[in-house]
Amino acid sequence: MNDMIRDFFKMESAGGILLVIAAAIAMTIANTSLNDAYQGFLHTYVFGMSVSHWINDGLMAVFFLLIGLEVKRELLEGALKSKETAIFPAIAAVGGMLAPALVYIMFNYGDAQAIQGWAIPAATDIAFALGIMALLGKRVPVSLKVFLLALAIIDDLGVVVIIALFYTGDLSTSALAVGFAMTAALFILNAKKVTKLTPYMIVGAILWFAVLKSGVHATLAGVVIGFAIPLQGKKGEHSPLKHMEHALHPYVAFGILPLFAFANAGISLEGVSMDGLTSMLPLGIALGLLIGKPLGIFSFSWLAVKSGVAKLPEGINFVHIFAVSVLCGIGFTMSIFISSLAFGTVNVEFDTYARLGILMGSTTAAVLGYFLLHISLPKKVVSVEGNEQVNSQH
């Protein structure tokens, strides 16, 4: 049994599977007699903040720290290092953010409150999307995995910018001043080639608290800390950035993201009507994820290649690009996160229908994306010697 558990957590798809399980448990509990206990737990106050607040503003800052580390590594030595390799996923990501937002705006134009959720379908759940792709194992070309990872990372970076610009509350200048001072301190540590992680964590904790009190969303502190961690260690030392990334990954994939899903996917269907479910808000989100995402990513990718601005990565064709673009319609945790910023404290009913739209769109995108990849990728066959080979026939 221990070996089975160990093997499960080694699977690339394990994080995505846990997300689904956590969300399913939350949805089930929220629609039973246990809902009062569930809501009571989430609204229990610990050190001045509710458990829900700690998860969304505290633990998710660690997730955004990991995003910051991943983006920095990819920019310095990964898929985004050179213009040639970065331009294709970057253009695709821009299309993948613009088109879903436009679809949502088309459905909700004229509703001053609903329009605040325009960024909800612009997000991609990187853990979920990679988890679904990992279910196909070695059939997936490395270049296609890199494309999805780079696309999702740029998408996440775009979401960070959107949160900073459009989902920031009333600002506290004194808290912002402390935040800027701590940001400067982090990059001074980097410039002085400090490779021990403890000073970064101490300054980072103060930065997080300052940002929390400033009116800017506290998770953005995580991205700043991630960018400040040095990639290169001193002679004979491991990379501080890679060390931290490696250390954080299992906690984020198997702890923080499933906990976030559990805390935010528990939607009570009591009082939910079919009219509400088919209203412009949830439809705009679901169709933004299902139609806007693939339309934006695929069309921008196609135009980039046909215009000569970028070229298709080796081993990938446009059928693969379309399948991945559908998979990117899994907004899930990131979309729920933006929904909580747009509607969470303003309109609970809007937030409920938004989350239902996210679940409808994300679930359908996951199933369709998997199916399209399954039929478009090379099939495994067994050779005469009994060894597995890949047949390039589609």
Automatic annotation (TrEMBL):
InterPro entries associated with the record: Na/H_antiporter_dom_sf, NhaA
Reactions catalysed, as given in the entry: Na(+)(in) + 2 H(+)(out) = Na(+)(out) + 2 H(+)(in)
Location(s) in or outside the cell: Cell inner membrane; Cell membrane
One of the protein's GO biological processes: regulation of pH
Domain of life of the organism encoding this protein: Bacteria
Claim: Ion transport is one of the keywords in the record: yes
PANTHER family documented for this protein: NA(+)_H(+) ANTIPORTER NHAA (PTHR30341:SF0), SODIUM ION/PROTON ANTIPORTER NHAA-RELATED (PTHR30341)
Cellular component annotations (GO), alphabetically ordered: plasma membrane
Name by which UniProt lists this protein: Na(+)/H(+) antiporter NhaA
One Pfam family linked to the record: Na_H_antiport_1
Transmembrane parts of this sequence: 46-67, 87-109, 115-136, 148-167, 173-191, 203-231, 251-269, 281-305, 317-344, 356-377
Membrane topology according to the record: Multi-pass membrane protein
Alphabetical keyword list: Antiport, Cell membrane, Ion transport, Membrane, Sodium, Sodium transport, Transmembrane, Transmembrane helix, Transport
Protein function: Na(+)/H(+) antiporter that extrudes sodium in exchange for external protons.
